[in-house]
Design brief:
single chain; alpha+beta; Alpha-Beta Plaits; NADH Oxidase; 11 helices; globular; binds flavin mononucleotide
């Protein structure tokens, strides 16, 4: 039974609906009679992230062939660095409680300790600690992704994207983003949830002058430090690639967030208090390790 790709054990399911809320791809729903169900026409969007299973108190939900006995582990009480890494998840559902300035300053302190490729790095961090400002930007971001969806159906535009951004980016856009755009995941937004910034109240944007050396590498390292610092503070965070993608294409968005027009936005991080508790860890492995010659 446990090896089925997508399965809900209706005999044990408590119908709490946490899996519905935590799923980043909206693959699970409460149907019109209030029963938890997988949505057959969304299943192809499943990331296999395992979050639905990591929060299920009755181990009733099974996604993408994952197994409780094989793909998850029980948390230990250790609080060392490795345990911090194992406990971290991309958190996309937050309590309505704002993150304090002191907490953001601690995150920024962690970022300031990160390695950087250029001795005088140029990466700036812009902090939007206000859901209303994020809400102001959502209609523009959402319409950007609608336009992108149309371009991705146009072979000529695809050639331009491939030429400007590379074959790998075009593949990500077509395989990962387009199916979500087509399901309207980025079109729906309200004050407490949206498919882009996930209802977050706090958004950190990492950007630098477009011609500055190694700013992309530095930004990714900085955002990773910020995500781990958030975890260490008991906050939750997720790296959001959608926000910089939209910012780099929209002067209006750059104005809302006060990002200089000559800057390249590379990464962003949503931060907040996690709404749900993960009950178990999700095992992660590297694809392949080559030991070479020892
Ligand atoms: C460069 C990058 C961009 C990402 N962009 C998004 C995003 O736009 N939206 C989102 O919900 N998650 C985004 N993520 C989070 C990944 O989906 C997440 O890390 C992955 O599913 C693994 O889950 P975990 O972080 O819980 O281990 C991004 C992660 C990275 C590294």
């Amino acid at each position: 039974m446990e090896t089925m790709e997508f399965y809900l054990n209706t005999e044990t399911c408590s119908q709490c609906g946490i899996c519905v809320n935590i799923c980043p791809a909206l693959v699970i729903e409460k149907d019109s009679s209030g029963r938890v169900n997988f949505k057959p026409d969304y299943i192809h969007l499943c990331l296999g992230c395992g979050q639905c299973m990591a929060v299920c108190s009755t181990k009733s939900v099974f996604a993408k062939g994952l197994r409780y006995d094989n793909d998850f582990f029980e948390f230990s009480d250790t609080t060392d660095f490795f345990s911090l890494l194992e406990h971290r998840r991309s958190v996309r559902r937050f309590k309505p409680k704002p993150v304090s300035r002191e907490e953001i300053e601690k995150i920024l302190y962690a970022v300031s300790q990160a390695p950087h490729g250029d001795s005088h790095h140029h990466v700036e961090v812009t902090i939007i600690n206000n859901r209303n400002t994020i809400m102001e930007a959502l209609p523009s971001m959402s319409s950007f992704f609608d336009s992108l969806g149309k371009w991705l159906h146009n072979p000529f535009m695809c050639q331009i994207i491939k030429f400007k951004k590379g074959k790998d980016t075009l593949k990500t856009l077509k395989n990962h983003l387009l199916p979500r755009i087509e399901k309207g995941i980025y079109r729906n937004y309200s004050s407490d949830y949206d498919g882009i910034t996930r209802g977050a109240h706090t958004l950190l944007i990492f950007h630098a002058p477009a011609d500055s050396e190694e700013h992309k590498e530095d930004s990714y390292i900085f955002v990773t430090y910020a995500a781990l610092a958030a975890q260490a503070l008991g906050l939750g965070a997720t790296i959001i690639g959608l926000v910089p993608a939209a910012l780099n294409k929209s002067a209006e968005l750059r104005e809302i967030f006060h990002i200089p027009h000559n800057h390249d936005s590379v990464a962003s991080l949503i931060v907040g208090y996690p709404k749900y508790k993960y009950l178990r860890g999700i095992k992660r492995e590297l694809k392949k390790v080559n030991w070479g010659i020892e």
